[in-house]
Structures are given as C-alpha cells and as structure tokens.
Amino acid sequence: GGVQNQPDFQAGAVDHHTHFVREVPRFVKEAMDEYGALTGRHYRPVMTFRTEDAEHLIVGLGSVTDDAEAVATHLRTQGKRVGVVSIKLLQPFPEA
C-alpha cells in the first residue's frame, strides 16, 4: 500500500535490516547449539543428507525434509543417487 512508500517506513525497513536481521544468524546458531546440548539433536541453518555423491537433490523447508530423507534412502536402494538439502533458516538465508 501507500504507507510502504513513505520515507519513514523505508528508513525503518533499512534500520531493521541493519540492526536486527544481520544478528539473526548469530542468535540462531546459539539457540541451535543450546538445543543440541540439551537434547543431543544438532541442527544447522542448512543441513544435508547423503549429498556427497548425489546426482539429484531434493530441497525442502521444514518437516517435509524428514519424508524427503526417507524417499532419498528408498531411491538409493534402486541405484539412484539422491540427497536432501534441508533449509532450517529461510530468512535471512545463510551466507556461504
């Protein structure tokens, strides 16, 4: 809408990105590390499953990747080299 074109809104969006979004990856890493220490289940912003020799990748976000890992495992029994990339942090997308 028209409000988004106002200078104050635009300045706020830039300020939000400058002071908040750039810190999110650090907070997420800390939270994932703490969760791993408490539960033994370790997560990263982008996780992979059997991608080392994969010819095809299934890319997913969220819980669908649990099913995708089962599919990749099944397809590998048929000789197809399939892996999974699981995105745990969408925005801001992790830098390489």
Summarize the structure.
With 96 residues, the chain is of the alpha+beta class. 45% of the residues lie in helices and 17% in strands. It is built from 3 helices and 3 strands; from the N terminus they run H-H-E-E-H-E.
Rg (C-alpha, Å) = 18 Å
Total individual domains:
2
Number of strands: 3
Number of helix segments?
3
Series of secondary-structure elements, N-terminal to C-terminal: HHEEHE
Whole-number mean pLDDT:
87
General description of the model:
This protein is an alpha+beta fold. The protein folds into two domains: 1-43; 44-96, Rossmann fold. Helices cover 45% and strands 17% of the residues. It is built from three helices and three strands, in the order H-H-E-E-H-E. The protein has helices at 7-19, 24-39, 64-77, and strands spanning 46-49, 56-61, 82-87. Strands 1-3-2 form a three-stranded mixed beta sheet, with helices on one face. Strand 2 (56-61), helix 3 and strand 3 form a beta-alpha-beta unit. The longest helix is centred in the first third of the chain and has 16 residues, at 24-39. InterPro entries: PFOR_II, Pyruvate:ferred/Flavod_OxRd, Transketo_C/PFOR_II.
SSE diagram, text form:
Blueprint: H1 7-19, H2 24-39, E1 46-49, E2 56-61, H3 64-77, E3 82-87
Parallel strand pairs: 2-3
Antiparallel strand pairs: 1-3
